[in-house]
Amino acid sequence: MKAHINEIFSSIQGEGKLIGRRQIFVRFSGCNLHCNYCDTPQGLDPTSGSSFSEEQLFNSVNNLITPDFHSISLTGGEPLLHADFIRSFLEKYDFNCLLETNGSLPDEMEKIAELIKYASLDIKLPEHRSTSNWDNLFKDELKSLNLLIDNKTNIYCKIVILPSTKVDAIKLIASRILDEISDASKLSMVIQPAYPLNHWIKNNEKLFEFSEAVGNYLDVLTIPQVHKLLKVR
Ligand SMILES: C[S@@+](CC[C@H](N)C(=O)[O-])C[C@H]1O[C@@H](n2cnc3c(N)ncnc32)[C@H](O)[C@@H]1O
Ligand SMILES: Nc1nc2[nH]cc(C(=O)O)c2c(=O)[nH]1
Ligand code: SF4
Ligand SMILES: [Mg+2]
Questions:
Q1: 103: which of 26, 29, 86, 144 fits an S-S bond (Cβ 3.0–4.6 Å)?
Q2: Taking Cα atoms as reference points, which of 115, 116, 109 lies closest to residue 145?
Q3: What's the family (predicted)?
């Protein structure tokens, strides 16, 4: 089986609850959404990068292993577009992986959830213009969250916020997640301020408003992308 991979590199995880872990990033090519803030436009083209077999991917990853290696980050683009390949790869090579996903394809998530140790699931906002039908996307994200929780994956969800983001929008999403996921005690929400961070110099009081709004419903952390501050890939 083959998959188009945009890039494979070793770095320090810069987002979410595994921040600081040394990971090997496998950036799959192609994405089914078009978030207006996306910082990885090069990964959205399904033909970008090169085509890899499972064995070729293993060899590339194996050549990048370092003493501090923690796990593989399966990212993109959208890795769920490559669920069959990911399943085949992880059945052959049982690496610990972090799946960095938009959660929009629960049927694809079902193929790999049992093989994924860590997952970061982005909840997109209507203002992100990720898709024309936000309600359906949110329902799919909730289905994917429940699949991961049911498979005992170490999971957190993440929301990218902009200075224009309305606190009520975040409150509504956090309350619906609390109502509709199977076990809220298993789920933290990471609030991730959109990069570039200079947006936030005059808006940092909003960070407290967002955190308090989510804190009424879920465990919450506010964490920026630190790889950009460290100037690592
Ligand atoms: C490039 S996406 C790939 C994985 C998956 N498609 C997703 O959206 O989660 C990885 C993460 O980058 C983050 N991201 C992309 N552009 C960003 C930006 N301008 N500011 C902050 N986070 C950003 C999103 O939170 C997303 O979860
Ligand atoms: N260092 C580093 N950490 C990351 N966490 C998520 C990333 C992504 O692009 O999916 C990313 C990335 O591109 N680099
Ligand atoms: S889903 Fe992820 S890769 Fe796709 S456009 Fe949005 S942030 Fe970028
Ligand atoms: Mg990135």
A1: 144
A2: 109
A3: Belongs to the radical SAM superfamily. 7-carboxy-7-deazaguanine synthase family.
